[in-house]
Specification:
Elements: H1 22-80
GO cellular component, one term: endoplasmic reticulum membrane
Subcellular location: Endoplasmic reticulum membrane; Golgi apparatus, cis-Golgi network membrane
Function: Required for vesicular transport from the ER to the Golgi complex. Functions as a SNARE involved in the docking process of ER-derived vesicles with the cis-Golgi membrane.
Amino acid sequence: MRRAGLGEGVPPGNYGNYGYANSGYSACEEENERLTESLRSKVTAIKSLSIEIGHEVKTQNKLLAEMDSQFDSTTGFLGLCPM
């Protein structure tokens, strides 16, 4: 099926910019590249932060488990003492 208007009025060799003026298309591409790089750096920062949070959570869970164990042993010790 042929779509009406495709390729009509576009000089040969300008199919890559879809009929946009070279300067306008270039400006859009430059802005897209700039925004893409900005997004890439933000995603990288968020990824690093989430990895650091994961390490911190593991450390805190380990400390909580140790505290739980110590409280259990202290409770057992206090239960054996006569009052």
